[in-house]
Write a structure and sequence with these properties.
Number of strands: 10
Helix content: 25-40%
Shape: elongated
Radius of gyration: 31 Å
Order of helices and strands: HEEEEEEHHEHHEEE
Strand content: 5-15%
Mean pLDDT: 86
Oligomer: single chain
Distance between the termini: 122 Å
Number of domains: 2
Low-confidence stretches: 1-6
Largest sheet: 6 strands, mixed
């Protein structure tokens, strides 16, 4: 009597096929999961890249505007309170608010948005506002904003990101519909901390960063050219003036180091009126170190660690 083994072979074959199919399905699922994770990661990286680029561009625009200001170099515009892209006008001597949207239109830019498509926000230190009653901006004014305990910040840029679970009011002009926690409570303290519903991204402008660029402009203003400044003085006198040693603004004979002299009798010869007023009104003369060689044919200016040679 012969016994057939075909059913066992078939069963084994079917089991093997089922295992292959199961392995294939698991492999496809794993591949799909991996592709989804990679896709999500790629999208997140693209959003983060767009956010970082927008923040950096806004920061450069603010510093450029501050340094090029004709009356109060170093000052910054008020935030935009209603979303029209323009800096708010002063309410008396103050900005209506010191946290609002980034005023892209005032800065002659295109509208900037983060990786979630949200316009940037902006906080300003009140003592850096562009108003005549604010204290002079000459390197001594400490920025009154703080981030996670660190201070001396003159401005902060924010990417608000996607709405958190508690932010259901967008679009609006309410800070709390875009920023969270420490960034939305109306004081001068802010935070980079994320989690617990906070997803704000921050980029700061410190006083040191602003002054590093502003100092170079002030030195160039005092150096001047053949139409104004020390170079004009030299072109008329063939020497540079003595230094103001005692701080009264007058050149002190025989003094080769001190401050730039700017006595009233010299300003028409030395500086044009616009430059003289800019330097005098913002108290720059007393902040700048000035020295000359013994033959008075070479001079140097120094401010906040920046040195500029004043050649004939």
């Amino acid at each position: 009597m012969t016994t057939s083994i075909m059913p066992k072979t078939t069963e084994l074959s079917q089991s093997g096929m089922a295992l292959i199919v199961l392995t294939f399905i698991l492999g496809m699922a794993a591949t799909a999961f991996l592709l989804h994770a990679l896709n999500a990661n790629t999208m997140k990286m693209a959003r983060d890249k767009k956010t970082a680029a927008a923040l950096v561009e806004a920061k450069a625009a603010l510093i450029g505007r501050a340094v090029s200001d004709d009356n109060r170099p170093g000052s910054l515009p008020c935030p935009d309170g209603n979303g029209d892209g323009s800096a708010d006008l002063f309410a008396g001597v103050n900005c209506p608010a010191y946290v609002g949207r980034f005023p892209w239109k005032t800065l002659a830019m295109t509208k900037l948005a983060d990786g979630s498509g949200e316009p940037l926000w902006y906080a300003l230190a009140s003592n850096y506002r562009d108003h005549a009653t604010a204290q002079p901006i000459n390197g001594t004014a400490i920025g009154d904003l703080r981030v996670d305990g660190s201070g001396d910040i003159v401005a902060i840029l924010f990417s608000p990101g996607a709405p958190s679970q508690t932010q259901s009011g967008r679009p609006s002009n309410n800070v709390s519909d875009y920023l969270e926690g420490e960034n939305a409570d109306g004081d001068t303290n802010f935070s980079r901390q994320t989690g617990n519903g906070q997803n704000d991204r921050l980029l700061t402008i410190s006083r040191q960063e602003l002054m590093a660029t502003l100092s170079q402009r002030m030195l160039r203003e005092i150096r001047g050219d053949t139409t104004q400044g020390m170079r004009k003085y030299y072109s008329n006198a063939t020497v540079y003036p003595y230094a103001d040693f005692d701080g009264d603004g007058n050149a002190d004979a025989g003094q080769f180091a001190g401050r730039p002299s700017h006595q009233a009798g010299l300003d028409s010869l030395y500086f044009n009126s616009a430059t003289f007023n800019l330097l005098q009104n913002n108290d720059w003369f007393s902040r700048i170190n000035y020295s000359i060689a013994s033959d008075r044919r070479t001079a140097w200016l120094e401010l906040n660690g920046k040195t500029l040679a004043v050649a004939p």
